[in-house]
Amino acid sequence: MSALLPAFWAISLTLAQPPVQTPTSAPPPVQTPSSTSTTTTTTSTGTTTTTTSATATATTPAGTETSAPPVQAPKALPAWDPAATGAVPAAPIEPPVPVPVAETAAPPADAATPAPAEQQGPPFYSTTDMQQLRARHGLEASPPASERRSRWRCLIADPTCGLVVEVQATSGYAYRVRQGDVTSPGDLYRWSSARVQYDVWVSIPTLVESRGSFKYTRVSLGPKGGIIASDSKDVWGNVGFAGRYWFKRTRWSPTIEFSSGLAFKVAGIQKPDGRFDNVRSPIGFVADVGIGLGGFGAIVLGGQFDSPLAREDVPERARTPAAGMFYIGFRGNILWGAPAAIGVATHAAALRGVNAP
Q1: Residue 314: inside a domain, yes or no?
Q2: 305 - beta bridge partners?
Q3: Nearest 5°: CA angle at 171, between 285 and 292?
Q4: CATH number for position 312
Q5: End-to-end CA gap in the chain
Q6: Which of 28, 30, 38, 37 has its CA nearest to residue 57?
Q7: pLDDT tens digits for range 186-235
Q8: Is residue 28 included in any domain, yes or no?
Q9: From 127-141, 151-165, 325-339, 340-354, the region with the lowest mean pLDDT
Q10: How many domains would you assign to the chain?
Q11: Strands (E) located in 140-283
């Protein structure tokens, strides 16, 4: 029985289906619209579209024409009016309100720092670069615009001078010592006297300091020569060198002076007859050092030694005993008068007032 159920189910489905209908009449004619025009009108409230349809002509398969009803276009919807519907329009967007910003007062023109002036040509350094360069090398921030001029045409030493030729006069106290009888040990003569010296110095700058575009002498050194006089009409010659160190660049700068040379006796009193005559003697030396003020003057301290020619086989009239002196005095340039006057007065006092043994 169960095997017959599918068969009965298929038969029932076949009976339930509707019969297939076969068309007995011709199909309806195809409608073809002759023309269609569309008009669009735009207003402030909306857009209205109007379509005009022409009459369509249909052609049947038998070749007869029939008139079809006009094709109606869909009607356009009216424009939406917010007032009619009662809707509340959205509020317009307000622009953002600018926030006031406090303005900073500009500094006055006088307080503004001027921009450094750029140099047009090489070495292309600005004013700030030059100040840093001068500070790095220990130079002054503002170099002088003009150079100080020396007086007396460099006949008196000055740091602004190059080559200097000056005449110096030295006068002072001298403590003299001379050997007595060469056959008697410890036979010495000691006495106080005066000493006068006249020298010509040629000072050549050996160490120069630059300040801006100007040059100043720091150390000078050069040859010198002159004569030395004392009591008993003793006269020596000396040839050597002299130098000066300047502490500053001013005219009255403190200085250190030094000189040294060979000394030899050229004249004196002859022993046999006591007359003044030329004397030949061995070579000695002389040296001194002083602290001065500019090229005008200095206080000097020095000494002199005369070499002996006093062998026992030398005749008495030809002997030159060993001698020397220590002295302290004042040395200055004769152009301003005082050193020359003091030197002449000291020489005259030594010849008249000192009795040498």
Answers
A1: yes
A2: 285, 324
A3: 90
A4: 2.40.160
A5: 188
A6: 30
A7: 788 999 999 999 999 999 999 998 877 788 999 999 999 999 999 888 89
A8: no
A9: 127-141
A10: 1
A11: 164-179, 188-211, 214-229, 235-246, 254-269, 276-278
